[in-house]
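Thought: the user asked what histidine kinase looks like in 3D. I have the sequence; next I should run the structure tool and report back without guessing.
Action: structure_tool
Action Input:
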Amino acid sequence: MKFNDSLITKDVIATALMKSSFYDIALARRGSIASVKKIAKRTIEVAIKLPDNFDFIAGQYIWLQIPQLKYLDQRGNTRMFSIASSPSKKRQLDIVFRTSESGYKKTLIESVAGTEIIFSGPFGPLKLPEDSLRPVILVAGGIGVAPFLSMIRFSAEIFSRHNITLIWANPSNEEAIYVDELASIEKASANFNLVKVFGRLKNSHLKQIMESTINSNAVWYIVGPQSFVDSTTQFLHGSGVLPENIIFEEFYSQTPSELAFKKNIYAAPLLFAPMNPFFTVVKNASNHIIITDANGMILYANKGAENMTGYTFAEMKGSTPRLWGGLMPRDFYVKLWKTIKQDRQIFSGEIKNRRKNQEQYHAFVRISPIIDNNDTLVGFVATEEDITHLKEKEGGLKNIGMAFQNLLEDLRIEKSKVEVEKAKDEALLASIGDGIIATDKEGNIIIMNHAAVELLHESEANFLGKRIYEIVKMYNSKSTLVPTSERPIIIALSSGKSTTTATTTTHEIIYFYEKKNGIKFPVAITVTPIMLNKNIIGAIEVFRDITKEINIDKAKTEFVSLASHQLRTPSTAVKWNAEMLFDKKTGNLTKKQEKYLQEVYHGNERMIKLIDNLLSVSRLELGKIVPKEEIIDLKRLLEGVVAEQRPVILQKKFRFEIDQPKENVETVTDQLLVRMIFQNFISNAIKYTLEKGTITCALKKTNKKIIFLVKDNGVGIPEAAQKRIFEKLFRADNAMDINKEGNGLGMYMVKQITQTLGGEVWFESEEGKGTTFYLKIPLKGKV
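Observation:
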């Protein structure tokens, strides 16, 4: 055949050679009839649709079972067929056979497309030699060409180097199949030679091929009827061809002694007579017993064999044990045949076979050669003992042992993975600049990174195993130790929620950690609980030194304070001059001039208010505001603030209610600071409540506290914005949509002032329904 030396072709050849040494068997596969057609006189081709995962080697065969026979057949519903198609023809294989009166074949011929079939395989010893330089001579009698067709087709497709000659004998040209296809392959390839013989194959045909074959190491493959195989083999042996260079498929060559033995078996009525003690023992034995000729052709099978395999003797007769076997690796059968045929020794061992219903079973097999008086091997006696139940028990023990081995291996692998992950985690922790401390659910430190050790100025050994809240001291901005219950890591461990502390001075509380040398440094802390199956098993604390951020914030605050002072003077001058113009001390103004002056005046007022707020914020942050302790009446203070807002309240037609005691509500505190809180609460309610809305102010006095609240049914605060309401310069999106002139300083100042007064501030809100702000201050003020 022509050989293409391309890389692609080499890959295909390598794959083919690899497959040729692979022995893959599948049981009870389901397929269906794709088509049935007559391709020559007395010859039928059946195409079978296959599952996706079916592969075979060129030259192999399958066992084909028809679930329901339409016509009775003594040999049953299963037959062996050589595969005629190439392995490259995916999801379909072709078989060919001669017609006969067999009930099986008649049923198959009348099958329609889609008819379900069951097949097992692939099986078979036929394959091209691995040495592509050895000549290959295929001798086929009639339909015996089927496996050779598969080999020839595949060789042509992969451009095999094998030099192949096909000697094909047919009764007539009308019964020859695929002649045109084979002629085309011969024409296209220099490595394939077709010799057609019509009528009986003569020795002269074989002699002519032998003379043209230079290499005496040629491999001869013979497939056909028994008489065809016998006569061909006899001539080859007589011509000096070694037995090991002759390969058979179904029928093997038989010697005269073997033929005589077979004849004696069939013609021994006394041996198999019902009254013969030998027959009675063999027939009734529970073990499987068969007698075969020297090539494994079954001559006799007892009831035990029928029971074990599921096949009747009529179905077995004329077949080989491959009918229920063929499941072991190829090397097993090579050793078996060498032992019983070449060495003439008894073979015994465990084997796996397949019953007619496709069920697998394990057996202990013993095969003994039968030697006649002329020292000629004429047949075999084989027995099988079903040991499936023992193998199942043994398999269970093996499975337990394998399970333990797998478990140990899994543990080793997992240990290795854990060690790798640990190394990665340690490298990752070491590379992070923030301090990281991991604790168990009791707060005991189990891991800390290098940055944490550096920040706290302490060795890791002095931390591990100790409770974080005992060894790492935490202070608030007043240099007071933070109670254990209020520490972020304890809150996270008890609540199962992440906790974050201040990161800059825009937050209300700054926490400090103390180093080993007693120096305190401000920290921003984030604590996240570790959850396992919804249970808290520990926590991770990440902290960092925010000294630089605080210094930057302080510098910004000082700058804002200075700038605000500088801006206050020109703003005051603008206001004074505008008022002079309004008083007409410089003459009368036109209406257009008055309009422009009004805009200048109001814009300047907004500027003054912003400057005042910035000054107040900077003083609060720098700690320059010291509350002035004086006795004030909060009831009168509230009424005064409401009176200032009365024009806007009337303009927007609010329903404005004040709930306060009849008696005075007096306390000692800073009137100016409390007034700023009242103003912010009420002005915000007015800004963010639509016309005709409701606003309620309430002032209540308890034993030691005074509570002031402002409730509205305005736009409310979105949930996502609520945690940032007290941040500097923050405004919610819906607030900016309603009032674009706000600056985001009001609530920040309220928070700072409340802390200065020693009080608390909080709120409740639902977007679209309204907001309630609360203030709680000591009854006697800050001492």
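Thought: the tool returned a structure. Summarizing for the user.
Final Answer: Structure for histidine kinase predicted. The two ends are 111 Å apart (CA to CA). The chain has six domains: 22-123, 136-248, 256-386, 432-545, 551-621, 630-778.
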